[in-house]
Amino acid sequence: MTNEQTVEKPKPLKRGMLDNVLEQFNSAADKIDLNPNVRKILSITNTEIIIHFPVRMDNGEVEVFTGYRVQHNNALGPYKGGLRYHPTVDIDAARALAMWMTWKTSLAGLPYGGAKGGIQIDPSIYSKGELERITRRFTYALGENIGPEHDIPAPDVNTNDQTMAWIADTYMSTKSTSERSKNQHVVTGKPVGSGGLEGRDRATGYGVYLTIKFWSEKNNETLKGKKFIVQGFGNVGYWAAHFLENEGALLVGVQDAFGSVQNQKGITVEDLFNYGKANNGSIVGFPEASAMEGKDFFALDCDICIPAALGNQITKDNARSIKASLIAEGANGPTDVEGEKILIERGITIIPDIMCNSGGVIGSYFEWLQNRNGELWQMDEILEKLEKKLRTTFKKVTAYSEENNIDMRTAAFSIAIARIEKAYILRGIFP
Ligand code: NAD
């Protein structure tokens, strides 16, 4: 017998999105010497809702699901942010994504705060009817925790205009007859014809493309002939690729949840989109390109890399192998802090998520105004307004980054946080 004990060494914890967003926030807060009381408030979320709710499945059995809504901050206006249906949705993911929304809406100069939520679920294993019942029951359970002047959800990963239509209908059904139509803007990203905005479907991807175009123009370059890769070929990835291709850029690699394909001679965006549609949403087996190992995807030869899927995709494990000189963050939080340090050391430019993908929430703001004012806006006018707003933000961020000799992410965070700080200083803290 020996009294020696084997003590297991603690395993290093995997960095999560929440660690990243907090580190990004603190680094910008240090740079702008943020008021310490405002720092305390912004370091934590205002409200966190976790709901377990039952739904009857097609086979008659009941399943219990877990849904989240985290409201980070509303100093500038109602909470705003998407709903994600994915197995990785949990309280920390919702907290991180809600914080990014606060910075994003502030940076874009919108009268909104930040929130995020979703359901921990793999939606691909449920029928359309089951997804409708899951969505409606979650909406009902959220009750007055959402509302057109309080907290306004929108689509995110694995949710779309159909999901938003179910939410709007359920929420409006809980109101008295005369109040119903006043509540349509409880969600944005609804189908056109049911309160939706022309062009909201492409707003995020269009914004991603625009920020890349602005960057090229600033550097006296053209997009013609530039090679790009896209991780995630959903709403954001597809539309960004669509607009880049229209400008003469060449899509050479795509990765989705099912696999990765590449072709250095170019992949036709619409062909891949139509193939995916006919193939249960998967790009695997696309005949115009060859399959490749997922782990090598970010090392593909290209000029521009667009991560447009999930968070924490570019890390210390792959940042050294990236060939692109520009990363345009279509996704929220795709680059972790360690990965970013390596990219910066290597002189690779990052257009940060809170600016790069902000076309979506700007489009959502237009939809909200359209519903609130009883108007119907036209596509041309919408895309023009979106471009103007994004160009203003881009100019502000690049100017701030050059004046202060800091990267674009720290510049974007600094501008966003300073706007919220000002609101707190002006109005004080109750009581
Ligand atoms: P989507 O559901 O339409 O598409 C997601 C795509 O990512 C799909 O092609 C899916 O196959 C792929 N994917 C999922 N897991 C993957 C993995 N592990 N590896 C590679 N690919 C994977 O979602 P979306 O609306 O396009 O959102 C994509 C990203 O953009 C998310 O980070 C989201 O938060 C962000 N975003 C979306 C919007 C919007 O308006 N939809 C706005 C701003 C930011």
3D structure, described in words:
By secondary structure, the chain is an alpha/beta fold. 42% of the residues lie in helices and 16% in strands. The strands form two sheets. It has a seven-stranded mixed β-sheet, with helices on both faces. Strands 1-2-4-3-5 form a five-stranded mixed β-sheet. Residues 1-5 have low confidence and may be disordered. Helix 1 packs parallel to helix 3, helix 3 packs across helix 13 (408-427) and helix 12 (379-404) packs across helix 13. Among the domains are: 45-177, Rossmann fold; 203-356, NAD(P)-binding Rossmann-like Domain (Rossmann fold). Bound molecules: nicotinamide-adenine-dinucleotide (NAD). Residues 155-158, 204, 231-237, 255-257, 308-310, 330-332, 357, 360 line the site of nicotinamide-adenine-dinucleotide.
Distance between the termini: 64 Å
**Principal-axis shape:** globular
| CATH superfamily heading of the domain at 203-356 | NAD(P)-binding Rossmann-like Domain
User: How many beta-strand runs?
Assistant: 12
Helical fraction = 40-55%
- Return the string of H and E elements: HHEEEHEHEHHEHEEHEEEHEHHHH
Arithmetic mean pLDDT: 96
The CATH topology of the domain at 203-356, please?
A: Rossmann fold
Binding site for substrate: 80, 104, 364
Keywords: NAD, Nucleotide-binding, Oxidoreductase
Site (Important for catalysis): 156
Domain Glutamate/phenylalanine/leucine/valine/L-tryptophan dehydrogenase C-terminal: 197-428
